[in-house]
Amino acid sequence: MIGVFDSGFGGLTVLKEVMRELPQYDYVYLGDNARAPYGNRTKETIIEYTDQAVRFLFERGARLIIIACFTATSQALREMQEKYLRNPNSKYKDRKILGVVRPVVEAAVLATHSKRIGVIGTKGTIASKSFEIELKKIDPKVCVAQQACPLLVPFIEEGWHTKPEAKSILKKYLRSIQTHNIDTLLLGCTHYPLMIADIRRIIGKRVNVLHSGEIIAKSVVNYLKRHPEIEEQLSRSKKDEGSREFLTTESPERFNEFARKFAGIEAKNTARVELH
Ligand code: DGL
Description:
Number of strands: 10
Radius of gyration: 18 Å
Number of helices: 12
Mean pLDDT: 95
Shape: globular
Strand order of the largest sheet: 4-3-1-2-9-10
Number of domains: 2
CATH topology of the largest domain: Rossmann fold
CATH architecture of the largest domain: 3-Layer(aba) Sandwich
Order of helices and strands: EHEHEHEHEHHEHHEHEHHEHE
Strand content: 15-25%
Bound molecules: D-glutamic acid
């Protein structure tokens, strides 16, 4: 089973693409909606919440966990890998935890010609500099322009992202990035694909705006090809289409409504769970 974790609804944009590429596996999606958004929280809090979610998903039987949240990946992925995969006393050493920053960074380095790359994300993601660090690990010559866009997630969660107010805020955020003459823009937040058409229109045709969900899904496919031992564990119950389970720490009804609106996913039998 593949566990997909996000602070709330945003990871559904990743899950949707991963399920499209790999429909045959079983998935459990966990959204910590009761404590979302994570974007403005401290690193310590994000580590604590992500740790609870990762333990929960491993206990439920996930062989592979995708932390489908840029904020949680930026602030807590390394800590989770240390604690669960590299610690000799861990029960889960044979499992895997993937984040979402590395795949989009690799795609951006391949896509850029000018080596000038822009990143937009939550406050936590931008403050962590995770994108800049990962981009420079691959190519130290890249110039990275970053912009936190903290108002976009609340607008999107309210379903207000199509309103003129949201577009004018987006325009303000993108203005600072535009001055850096970038040719590639990364959407460093799970919610932003919902505004990708506006982002592309505002930033202009000369900038390649990468769709994170699609890139992450392709990287999971490649990852499983490179790790047959994990693929073998996942495919033990292989069918044409695997099972889908949805869990939330808040209202299942609200989750189902959002999954439909947000990602076009029909979530049924969604259950409420507690993380601690
Ligand atoms: N899922 C988060 C991310 O990708 C956005 C929502 C939040 O701030 O929790 O950064």
